[in-house]
């Protein structure tokens, strides 16, 4: 049955192993490079065989549309399994009726009115970050690795909005660094495990030093998220009026705690969702903002256009932005899209096929895995002329991009936090450009990407700042 796939182009295959041996021992950077090369070597539909399993690699919008709009084939692919000791089967990883039920419980947490009520937090957190950077400037540090400042910003906003917990005033603040480090380590360990097939069985992995390190990371991670849950539970008891006030009930963690009292979810269910949202809700936007500031620093003309746009909205006032101000920031919105085209925080997603379907004239059968290459799709020269060039104007015409531009995926399993993320990024980037001029430390810097849980690089992103 799978043999119709064997006719598709792909790397040469060995008996028994297929292509498995060519992925062994690769570093995360080598793996990234290898996956990018596949489409240039073999075209937009590539078949890789890992032992007896076909893994179809797709780079074409029409094929990607067929997969993403399929209402039954919503199960994630094998590599996501290595994340389950950490994220359980929370919204990102679950499938079938569990996924449907959870998505229904959590969707109200991203309602327009709820996002509107978060404006103050996005606003204040952006200001806090800007003030920290001004402080750094005053202390003589004008060249900064911006990543740690940004991830502090996105972590505190996800805690204060979705989780209703204020990081700065709580003792959990001390665990923040440990939490962020644990996510980096978890990513690295999962990637090591992926490229060494003998580490795949849990029984082997868990009993080796690498499995023990993994377990320690999970403990560090959970000690932070458990406290976030506890803090909110306490506050709810203390401030019952606030809970019945209506609006507050819509906060993500409150919805989960409400579902718990109705018997729809248990504590382990709450934990898997809190872990999922704390990670997906801060790391993705942090990486997009980091690459975004790097691109802005390299393109003074783009900064100036954003600044002009802000000036036309705010005049000379340094007042804080409202949601209707944000709606007017059309050029900034196009800039954010262009950032996500070049650096989509989730560069690659995967599905396991549960119901046979046709991909054009090719039958794809149950059990096949499919990888959708968002990063490579966004850099196709025929879809985005001069794809390496950073040009926000591409997104100004308002032309529909359909499945050629999918940083948030699409279809039933698209990103639930998409509007949250856009709003957060608009607040932060507009605040930055209103206060600072950014300069590159290396002109036209192209960081070396690596395969990880989100799009990452080990190269520090250093930017020179000056007050505007
Ligand atoms: C720039 C920021 C972001 C990008 C580029 C992004 C991208 C994505 C993508 C591509 C997916 C599909 C994953 C897959 O199919 O495996 C996804 C799913 C998801 N995202 Fe985001 N995301 C961002 C921000 C956020 C934020 C801020 C939150 C939460 C507040 C969030 C929560 C989630 C969740 C829970 C899912 C799983 C949804 C489901 O399967 O029902 N994301 N995201």
UniProtKB/TrEMBL annotation:
Pfam families in the record: p450 (PF00067)
PROSITE patterns in alphabetical order: CYTOCHROME_P450
Main location: endoplasmic reticulum
Membrane topology: Peripheral membrane protein
Binding site for heme: 415
Alphabetical list of CDD domains matching this protein: CYP4 (cd20628)
Family note: Belongs to the cytochrome P450 family.
Coiled coil: none
Protein name in the entry: Cytochrome P450
Domain of life: Eukaryota
Key words of the record: Endoplasmic reticulum, Heme, Iron, Membrane, Metal-binding, Microsome, Monooxygenase, Oxidoreductase, Signal
Organism in which the protein naturally occurs: Leptidea sinapis
Location in or out of the cell: Endoplasmic reticulum membrane; Microsome membrane
Cellular component GO terms, alphabetical: endoplasmic reticulum membrane
Cofactor(s) this protein cannot do without: heme
PANTHER family xref list: CYTOCHROME P450 4C3-RELATED, CYTOCHROME P450 FAMILY 4
Signal keyword on record: yes
UniProt GO MF annotations: heme binding; iron ion binding; monooxygenase activity; oxidoreductase activity, acting on paired donors, with incorporation or reduction of molecular oxygen
Function: May be involved in the metabolism of insect hormones and in the breakdown of synthetic insecticides.
